[in-house]
Amino acid sequence: MTTIRVTDLTKDYTIRKGMRRGAFRAVDGVSFDLVPGRTIALVGESGSGKSTIARMLSRLEKPTSGQIDVTLDDGTPMPRSLYRRHVQMVFQDPFASLNPFHSIEHHIARPIRIHRRASGAVAVHEKVLSMLDRVNLTPAEDVAIRRPHELSGGQRQRVAIARALAPGAEVLIADEPVSMLDVSIRLGVLNLLGRLQREDNLALLYITHDLATARHFSDEILVLYHGRVVERGPADDVILNPQHDYTRLLAIAAPDPEKIGKVVSSEAAPDRSTLDNSICYNHFTQSWESSEREPARA
Amino acid sequence: MTNLAPRTEPNVPDATMALATAAAERGRKPRSPWRMMLPTMTPWLAFGLVLVGGIALFGIIGPLLVQDPTTIRDSGLQPPSAEHILGTTQTGQDVFAQLAFATAGSLQIGLIVGVLATILSAFFGILGAYIGGFADEAFSLFSNVFLVIPGLPLVIVISGFVPQAQRGLWTIAVVLAITGWAASSRVLRAQTLSIRNRDYVAASRVAGERAGRVIAVEILPNLLPVLASQFVFAVIAAILGEAGLSFLGLGASNSSTLGTMLFYAQNGFALSLGAWWWFVPPGLIIALFGMGLSLINFSIDEIINPKLKNVRLHRKRARVAARLERSRVTRERKAAA
Amino acid sequence: MTISEETRTRTGSDRPAVISIEDLSVVYEVDHPVTAVKNASFSLAPGEILGLAGESGCGKTTLAYAINRLHKPPARISSGSITFHDRDGSDLDLMALNEDQLRAFRWTKLSMVFQGAMNALNPVTTVRAQLDDVLLTHRPEMSKKERTQRAGDVLERVGVDRRRLHSYPHELSGGMRQRVMIAMAMLLEPQVMIMDEPTTALDVVVQRDILREIVRLRDELDFAVIFITHDLPLLLEISDRIAIMLRGEIVELGTADRIYRAPEHEYTRQLLSSFPSLSGSRGAFIRTGDDEGQVQRS
User: Fold this and answer.
1) How many beta-carbon pairs below 8 A join chains A and B?
2) What interface predicted TM-score (ipTM) does this complex get?
3) Is residue B140 part of a domain?
4) Which residues in chain A have Cβ-Cβ distances shorter than 8 Å to B206?
5) So what CATH class is A3-257+273-290?
6) Does the record bear Membrane in its keywords (chain B) (predicted)?
């Protein structure tokens, strides 16, 4: 099974202000491993760099520095031409990630054909139907001929998942897969991802801003703040025993039904202006790691 | 001009409308994507289609049915009669017959220029926008240069440059196409940039689709309404441009178009002699054809920007709903009194 | 749907309700008329925070617009009444007001913070000018100095520095813009404020701050709030009572505590179970891999 090792991933953007050019570092020295059968959650708010990491992993953007090493089953490095076959992405917005012009069948058949998972019209069609069955979009024949605007948000996201798995991907990057869905169907889609991961032994990167689902759905959590990882560790450890101030801030701020009537929390919230993202607490080694980073280059 | 606004936050009426439409469509066989692209039939669209269709038919079949337009007779400048439906020209030629051939000529030019200009604008607009980077900058600069150069004077200069003998239909068509593609390419570039950033294009790239197929299969179908609209604009501009050129005497030398008809009418002092049957029909055909094409374009606009369709549908519904609500309030007040 | 007896009791003392809604229905007159709100009935006590929970398409925004009589054709109120019980003792039938009376009523007695309000500020005028506009319209007798003073006061009330009066909207962060919108709604000290998803697009930490402000302001100024959102845990924390809407109907209405501990309607239970808890045990979130994905016939 495919493994991805991300080392020191960094992404700089140039911002132009009039005649001057500055650099903005969106992602700064992020490292993690994606291993078959494990779900890693990348938790952060908007501007933390999590979507940029997703785009770099799916090769929509090139990293400024750092490595993304993909290793196959037998330990050999994977040739670049096979990257897209092994690594796929589910996008955040179910309303935008499907082309309104094409049928569902087209969306799933294209990756099948490109990566030669089946050949010949009949075999491809059969594979499309079987993928739709796997994501519980039944009756598959009925769904395949429809176009995106005829499906609900949850159904569209299932199609997106089917499309991502169609090439036979072994690493799945889910970029906020349920944040734009109605609340009551989020569970269903997340459970689907969990089931598919177990069935195919996928390596799953779950990107979200929602601490609660990250906790229940993943094995390991990485907390991102302004492009750097400030805390990492097993899910329960990070949530129930946060060490970094930012993680504590997130945990306090998240709405919790157990806190009925207690809007003004008794815990003192850490002051946002004093947050330091050059240090990271690693629950695996139970130690603080600090990193001196070079400034962004234009 | 069409609204190329990207997706904004859904508002309540649109969302409810979407729910109602979805409810209505459920259970019915899904329509093919091509069918979805066609505009809904409205009285305006029907009128436009009738105008365009009628004039096109006249231009295609007319020349086969009318008498020879070049026959010179003694009876010059005769008003419409039984023998000559639209009277005769100064040299006794049948105006109606001339009109048929002229319409055919103008339609030909319109079509050729439309196609050429659309191909040029599609190439410089879409391709540049998709590739991005230096190619985009270069193509964009190129289009802007052509945009800034004044169209009609350039056409006149180029036309005047080519000696009369070689100034055929195709020359004029090429000249008009070269001077008219730039505005279109800016529109297509903007639209392509907007589509290129959509998630479904990124998704197809992540799925492994090659650039050529991404443009052809993902981007182009969504550009079709805009392309169609630009094509129609190009045809209108071509016909008007050609009419202008010919009126100035710089038009195609060997063919007969509506513009050349007006040219001869002007030279034959038709206006001062009151021979309205000579210059009014060609002018009318130009105007009506342009109007018909514009009406068709309005309907295409509704596909490009579906909110325009809602505005039209809402206007009628809004009146109905407002009336119902007012009557309910007065009814209840009367009952309470 | 029967609504439990609690709707008839007031929260706490004998204070009369500030808004009573009786059997309100809103219909969209499209080709196949859609009933967006069906027979909604509830009353809002003074100083109460009433949460209106539901997912997309349930009619909560339509209901909010209808209360304000902001709904535009083809939407129309097909039945029911909305009565405003003023502080001074008079009762206003909102359906009977004409345009001028409505304009006088809106913003002085009842104001609204719209969905996506962060983008509702005019980008080319300063904050001061926009707040000034509201005061000019409704309190023409105030002098310019008084208006500026009042605008500054209200801004400080919501936690924005008075000096920000001279800023343009794009110079403020999302959270600050939202506070400005709330300030604008509070400018004339209305007795009721309707807030439609005021914090949805904001980061969870900023969201927490805004919620704190809203509750604090309510405590200080004693206005009632109808808080519309899909985020049930959030409502559980801040609301006195919660109404759950499904497909245009209010299917359950009760105190926040009761809704959480003893939900009666199936849909309420389903909504509650969609939110995994941060602090409870990990198994509290169902992860059976079971999910429904049939083509919905809702």
Assistant:
1) 72
2) 0.86
3) yes
4) 58-60, 84, 88-89
5) alpha beta
6) yes
